[in-house]
Structure formats: structure tokens, C-alpha cells
Specification:
Layout lengths: L4 H21 L10 H6 L6 H12 L2 H14 L5 H16 L1 H7 L4 H8 L2 H35 L3 H19 L1 H30 L4 H11 L14 E3 L5 E3 L8 H4 L1 H12 L1 H8 L4 H22 L1 H11 L4 H7 L12 H6 L6 H37 L5 H22 L9 H9 L3 H13 L5 H21 L5 H24 L19 H21 L1
Antiparallel strand pairs: 1-2
Helix pairs in contact: 1-9, 1-10, 1-19, 3-10, 3-14, 3-15, 3-19, 4-8, 4-16, 4-21, 5-13, 5-15, 5-25, 7-8, 8-9, 8-19, 8-20, 8-21, 8-23, 9-10, 9-19, 9-20, 10-11, 10-15, 10-16, 10-19, 13-22, 13-24, 14-19, 15-25, 19-20, 22-23, 22-24, 23-24
Length: 547
């Protein structure tokens, strides 16, 4: 299915705007040579609204538009817990972790680990993150983005992967974080506007012309898909191979509120380079914290954009509203309805003009995340690997060049690996589970590093070393244990090991590199407090309504 001329004009206009803006904001002033702070931290000049917009544009990608809509199709509103709990997590990070990072003046998360522990911990985690960004994050976003191009425009998967990689590289590799962050402001506008347009049309289709009636009909037609806290055996969902499995495996009841979901969210929003890098690039701590509040409000909105369309697609399929829609949902080889084809199929139903806008929104989400991940990969490699072991005396210009080369290499590797994800039904859950192999170790290292002065470097190194093998072992021994609960068990084991090692090794004394924290460090502005109160209130109300 091809885009109409008006849709193509809208989409091409968007592409030109992003590339042009990216190159414009990253141009070098006369007599000024781009240095590492310019390239990796956007000259530390981002205002709160750019920080918040860039956080969301970096976060919301194909894994949300395609993957989370697919999970909405399969298991319903419950998948929104990743978005709504993230809004609360952003507040925690803004209050308790950002002040520490900004006070330390770090460039990277591994750089913080060097300051708190030692070189071994920094290098170990830098390697883990590089592997994760390239083989899980970049790879999955490229695959899901190409899947949408394949479903909407019949673009072969390989060409789609290559095209998206090249588009993201055009402006991000030259301009660095400054180009990524400022174009993200525009990307978020397209992302929200185009996403809401798709939701409106999907609900209108269900409601036979009325989007408001369509929203009400969703809950009537699939009431089980509006339960936030799932019990064991409550819902069986497709496994992508013609069978089913218990949705409790993905979202294990109350654990999404008090268990492993916190490990996932804090590891992602608090200790993840391509997220925290935006806050580190803010003009000040206050601007960074306000940016977090702005991002929190956008997170509360996201399920309306990325989950509700998936539920609407289920109702369309269930009631046989559109036979062409059902055919598009089917895998062309196996004939099995694939959850992750829900959103791309919905885009085909949009009227001329809106289709171009929605396609631009999806592309905006994809390329902004790709650019962010590649930039953070290059930042970690340059600052924590290259500068330490290969070119310790490298000039600022050389560091920027190495960063650009690293980003290109990361894109090439991810593009080669991406087609292997084609066998998955819900790629979003794949990302969460395999990121979760490292998350417990990351959480323990940072949490103890900030809040327990006795944590030693060997304890942190042990936490990093055992996280993946322990997660793999537990997955093999207890396959019936939901991965969020497994993360909680792994964290408890790692925490016990780290406490034991620290007490034995340090003999009860504080570590020399321990961090001084006090109430003054965690003070926030009145604006932040008001925004935080509103976000907490809205989140509580949503869970009460949809429990």
C-alpha cells in the first residue's frame, strides 16, 4: 500500500525539517571547534522543555508504538503500567539521583561508577551497556521500525532497516547530542499529534463514527483488557506461534507496583546513559528536574497513544469489522495473527493527510530513539573505553571523531542483527526481559553506591558479574517464574552478596569514595513539588479506576 501524494508531501516535509534542523543547530560557530562537551552533552545548555521532550522522544520508539500496541492487543491496558509507573519513577530519579550526578559533573553512567568505585567496575558496566544498546535496543528499534514500513508500504525488511539507520545517522552523527535533543522537541510534537490522530480514527472505527462511543465500547467488548492488576490464569495471550501462555508471566499481579517493575524503571530512567544524558546536559539542576516533571506528564498520556489503539485493533478483529484489516494482521508466511502488526495495520486506515502525519509520528519515534541510543553508545565507548585504554591523550577533536565512527559501527552491527527478531510476537516483552538480565545488578550497584557508604568496589564488581549468569540460571531452573519476579529474586541475592562482601572487606568502615548525601542536596523548587503532587494524584486515580 502506497502513501497518497499529500501523505508523501507531509512525510517528506517532516524528513527535510528534521535533517535541516539537526544540521542547523549543530553548526559550528565561527572560530569555535566542537569539543567533547558540545558533542556529548549539548554544551550543557538545554532548557527544561527540551530536556523533557528529548527524554520522551528518546524513550518512545517503535518498541512503544509497535511493541506496546502489540501488547495492548494481546493483554490490554495492563501494559500501561510501564508508562504510568515510569511517571512516578521520574520523580524519584529527579529528587534522589540527579542532584548527585550533576554535583559530580559526570559525562556518563560508567564515569559515575569510576568516581564512586574504581576502573574495573566502570569498564565492566561500560561493556555491558555497549552490548545491551547495540544488540537489544538499537537492534529491536530498527527491526520494529522496518516492520512498520513493511506493513504500511510493503518495503522489504532489509531496505527498511537500512533506510532508518541512514536517516538517523544523517543528522545525529554530525551534530551529536545537541542535534538529537533539539530535533527531539519537534519529534515529540509529531509523535503526540500523529499518535492521537491514529487513536481517534481507531476509536471512531470501533464506535461507528464516534470516537467517544468507541472508547466506551472497548471496555464493553473486551472488559478483561481493562484490568491493570492481572492474577495468575486470568488471561491467556498469543505466543506468536499459534499457541497461548499466561499473561501473568509478563505482568505478575501486584509485583508491577511493589516488585520487579521498580527495578526495571529505576534502572532505565535513573541509571541508563541515553536517558540520563539529557538531564546531564541541562542548564542547571532545577531545569533538569523541571524537565523530568514535563516528561512525567507526557508519560501519563502515552497509553492513550500507544496502548488504546492496540485494544481497538483487537475489537476490530474480534467483531470482524474489517476483513482487510484482519488479513493485514496476519503473518504473510504462517497466517497467524501477529500482535505487533496491530499499529502498522491501523495506520493504513487513516484518511489522506493524516496518514502522512501519523507515519511521520512513527518515524519520528523511531529515528529519535535510534539517534539517542547511537549517541549514548558513542559517548560511553569514547569516554570510558577509548579515552581510558586506547587514546588517553586524545585531543577534543579526536574524541569527537571517535564518537562519530563508533555510532556508525553500532548502526551497522544492529542492522545486521535486526532481522533475527522476526520470530517474536511481542518484541516489547523481549526487550523488557533481556534488559532485565542486567537490571538487578545495575540497580544494586547504583543504589548502594549512592545511599550506603560502606559499599566496596569488589562488592559492586560482584554485583555486576553475577547479574546475568544468575538471571539465566534462574530462568532455566524456574521457567514458570515471571521475569519481573525473577528480577526481584536476583536483586535480593545480589544485595545480600554486596552487603556481606562490603562488611567483611571494609570491616564496618565507610568506603573512601563514598558519597556525602544530606537533606540540602535533595531540596526541590515549589514548581517541581506542585508538578510531582499532580502526577502522583493522577497515577493513583488511574490505578483506582482500572484496578
Amino acid at each position: 500500500m502506497l502513501l497518497e501524494p499529500l501523505d508523501l508531501i507531509v512525510f517528506i516535509g517532516y524528513c527535510c525539517l528534521i535533517v535541516g534542523m539537526g544540521l542547523f543547530v549543530s553548526r559550528e560557530k565561527k572560530g569555535h571547534v566542537k569539543n567533547s562537551q558540545d558533542y556529548f552533552l549539548a554544551s550543557k545548555a538545554l532548557p527544561w522543555w527540551a530536556v523533557g521532550a528529548s527524554l520522551i522522544a528518546s524513550n518512545i520508539s517503535a518498541e512503544q508504538f509497535i511493541g506496546m500496541s502489540g501488547s495492548g492487543f494481546a493483554l490490554g491496558l495492563a501494559i500501561s503500567t510501564y508508562e504510568w509507573m515510569a511517571a512516578i519513577t521520574l520523580l524519584v530519579v529527579a529528587i534522589f539521583f540527579l542532584p548527585v550526578y550533576i554535583k559530580k559533573g559526570i559525562y556518563t553512567m560508567p564515569g559515575f561508577l569510576l568516581d564512586r568505585y574504581d576502573t574495573r567496575v566502570r569498564t565492566t558496566m561500560a561493556i555491558f551497556w555497549l552490548l545491551l544498546y547495540v544488540f537489544v535496543n538499537l537492534t529491536s528499534v530498527l527491526y520494529l521500525g522496518a516492520l512498520s514500513l513493511n506493513t504500511i508500504l510493503n518495503v522489504p525488511l532489509g531496505y527498511g532497516i537500512a533506510g532508518l539507520a541512514v536517516f538517523a545517522m544523517i543528522y545525529s552523527i554530525y551534530g551529536g547530542l545537541k542535534a538529537v535533543a533539539w530535533t527531539d522537541v519537534v519529534q515529540v510534537f509529531f509523535l503526540v499529534l500523529g499518535g492521537l490522530a491514529t487513536t481517534y480514527i481507531a476509536l471512531q472505527m470501533v464506535g461507528e463514527g464516534s470516537a467517544w462511543e468507541g472508547l466506551g465500547l472497548l471496555r464493553q467488548e473486551v472488559p478483561g483488557h481493562f484490568s491493570m492488576i492481572l492474577e495468575r490464569g486470568e488471561m491467556m495471550i498469543p505466543d506468536g506461534k499459534g499457541g497461548t501462555y499466561d499473561a501473568y508471566q509478563d505482568l505478575p499481579g501486584i509485583s508491577v507496583l511493589v516488585g520487579g517493575m521498580w527495578i526495571t524503571n529505576l534502572s532505565y530512567w535513573g541509571f541508563n546513559q541515553y536517558i540520563t544524558q539529557r538531564a546531564l546536559a541541562a542548564k542547571s539542576l532545577d531545569e533538569a528536574q523541571k524537565g523530568m516533571i514535563f516528561a512525567g506528564f507526557l508519560k501519563l498520556l502515552m497509553p492513550l497513544i500507544v496502548v488504546i489503539p492496540g485494544i481497538a485493533a483487537l475489537v476490530i478483529v474480534k467483531n470482524g469489522i474489517d476483513t482487510g484489516f484482519i488479513q493485514s494482521m496476519q503473518d504473510p508466511v504462517s497466517g497467524i495473527i501477529k500482535s505487533d502488526r496491530a499499529y502498522p495495520t491501523l495506520l493504513q486506515l487513516l484518511p489522506v493527510g493524516l496518514k502522512g502525519l501519523a507515519f511521520a509520528a512513527l518515524t519520528a519515534a523511531i529515528v529519535s530513539s535510534l539517534a539517542s541510543m547511537a549517541n549514548s553508545t558513542s559517548t560511553i565507548f569514547t569516554m570510558d573505553i577509548y579515552k581510558k585504554y586506547i587514546g588517553p591523550n586524545a585531543s577534543e577533536t579526536k574524541q569527537v571523531a571517535v564518537g562519530r565512527i563508533t555510532a556508525v559501527v553500532a548502526f551497522v552491527i544492529a542492522a545486521i542483527v535486526a532481522p533475527a527478531l522476526g520470530q517474536l510476537d511481542q518484541a516489547f516483552q523481549f526487550i523488557q526481559e533481556y534488559t532485565g538480565f542486567i537490571s538487578p545488578g545495575v540497580f544494586a550497584i547504583f543504589f548502594f553506591g549512592v545511599f550506603w557508604k560502606k559499599t566496596t568496589s569488589n562488592a559492586a564488581l560482584t554485583g555486576a558479574a553475577v547479574s546475568i549468569p544468575l538471571s539465566v540460571l534462574l530462568k532455566w531452573l524456574t521457567p514458570e517464574l515471571p521475569f519481573l519476579d525473577r528480577m526481584g529474586v536476583v536483586l535480593l541475592v545480589i544485595a545480600a552478596l554486596m552487603i556481606l562482601i562490603s562488611l567483611v572487606e571494609g570491616k564496618g568502615k565507610d568506603h573512601p569514595n563514598s558519597i556525602e548525601v544530606n537533606s540540602e542536596l535533595f531540596k526541590t523548587s515549589a514548581t517541581f513539588k506542585i508538578g510531582a503532587f499532580i502526577i502522583i494524584g493522577i497515577t493513583a486515580a488511574l490505578y483506582i479506576i482500572f484496578w
